[in-house]
Amino acid sequence: MKTCIVCILISCLMVCCKQAEQKEQAIQQQAQVYLDDYNKEYQRLYYASSLAQWKLNTRIVKGDTTSEYEAGEADKALAKYTGSKSNIDSAQKYLAIKDKLTALQARQFEAILFNAGNNPETAGSVVERRIKITNEQTSALFGFKYMLNGKAVTTGEIDQILQTSTDLNERLAAWTASKEVGKVLKAGVDSLQHLRNASVTPLNYKDFFDYNAQEYGMSGDEMVKLTRQFISEIWPLYRELHTWARYELAKRYKQPVPDYIPAHWLPNRWGQSWGDLVNVQGLNIDPVLKARGPEWMAHQSEKFYESIGFDSLPASFWKNSSLYPVPADSPFSKNNHASAWHMDLDKDVRSLQSIVPTTDYWSTVLHELGHIYYYMSYSIPEVPVILRNGANRGFHEAFGSMMGLASLQKPFLENLKMISSSVSTNDTLKMLNEALEYIVHIPWGSGVMTEFEYALYSKNLPENQYNKTWWDLVKKYQGIVPPSERSEAYCDAASKTHITDDPAQYYDYSIANVLLFQFHTYIAKNILHQDPHATNYWGNKAVGDFLKSVMKTGASVDWRKHLQETIHSDMSAKPMLDYFAPLMTWLQNVNKGRKYTLPEKM
């Protein structure tokens, strides 16, 4: 009798389990039907928006607002779909029973809800107004005619002066000309500050800065804490670089050593990279690049990726991309900020560049193709359209920047016969050049840009304090000051494209710099078995296989777990600091007896 009762109980339990399993399967099937429909429609609207934005960014005709209008309409259609109440309700409904879904389904619903957060239907006309002003700002920024001594000039020509001229008057004129665009953009920044915040608060995000940080699984305050930690970790090295640069520049321009670096003394409009202060004898590849030309640079970059096992770029990439500058007297202009575009989240990949035959642009081309190959790696059936992105946004930048770093190391250049194998180089100066790019960028990216946008969106920075706040941050974090007083008539922050078209995400670059040294060190030590300072990725299929394994998952996995599973580490600046440890010792010796003007700790 007891046995019979036990059998009955077991039988009932099995029936209940089977029913529960069938119910769970039914929920997953129902969810999958919804997700398939969402992904299909999202891809269609995303592609239409990308095509319109491509036209807006590659052919800007002063006075013609057709492209602005078309981009606005396409953007509104995408925003209306992603932010629709029905999609928000559906995502929330399924996430309430997250334990009944597959892990991949749950990640898609989380992505759907995140996308809705910037465009919720409940925000009403706010989203439409935000889109309109964003596109107006894009046209104003990239359609702006920069004038120098009464002549129209390109930003490339301004950059060339800042990179090469030793005439302080010429430098001052070029730097000042580069900031005039801020006057035109200031009112739009003020409008977007409020519209961007108002777009995200209906779904309970604190503000626009906080919303963007949530994609990393962090609050805005947590993100700022992390980026301040990066600054603190690299600050002793940055302080040495800043001291070295003050004395070096004073000698170059035959001026007294300043406490803070005048902005027009530096080789970059924002002081974000100082690599041009160092000429590494034997590693100057400008003459080689000028002889071979921009087209060679583009196609040779593709050959590099092919050499490590990636496929050729599709023919459509070469047909549809915009890779070279437009002349200064062209009837139209274009966005001159190098970028990679995943137009349809599938096979249509493009790049927008203005390739010139310089060492800097050589690494830029490799960087942008790094993004393109990342797109191609995760554009596979196993990764749903909505999750075709980097494991986090910093991953994308990390792989692009890593290729830029690797492309300028001596063994790599020797392999391409861009330098002679017998050439003698100063390895300390080479490391100094790298530090003036990667270390110098962190106080700029984590400090100035991140803190400004944090103040803009999270602290509701008043319009009449934009320029003062900007220059206070520049002085605090970069140790740089303007050549003369900059009034509130200007908005010098807005001269940086990201304030307009990639807002409240600039810390991605700092995270990328940290990640790139982690990945590069791992590849150098565990795959190439080479010194991280002197690697050659070219032709090594094992490097390609490793990169593909990291790239192919897209955003379908948790980025923290992905780091642990691929390089067996959490995110850490230690590999970056280890890489530059020999340089730190050298700088401390060079700077003995010199006056330090930055605080010891930040």
UniProtKB/TrEMBL annotation:
- Stored InterPro entries: Peptidase_M2
| Gene3D superfamilies, per database record | 1.10.1370.30
| Signal peptide (from-to) | none
Cell membrane listed as a keyword: no
User: CDD domains attached here?
Assistant: M2_ACE
Keyword line: Disulfide bond, Glycoprotein, Signal
- What highest taxon heads this organism's lineage? Bacteria
Record's protein name: M2 family metallopeptidase
Q: What species was this sequence derived from? A: Danxiaibacter flavus
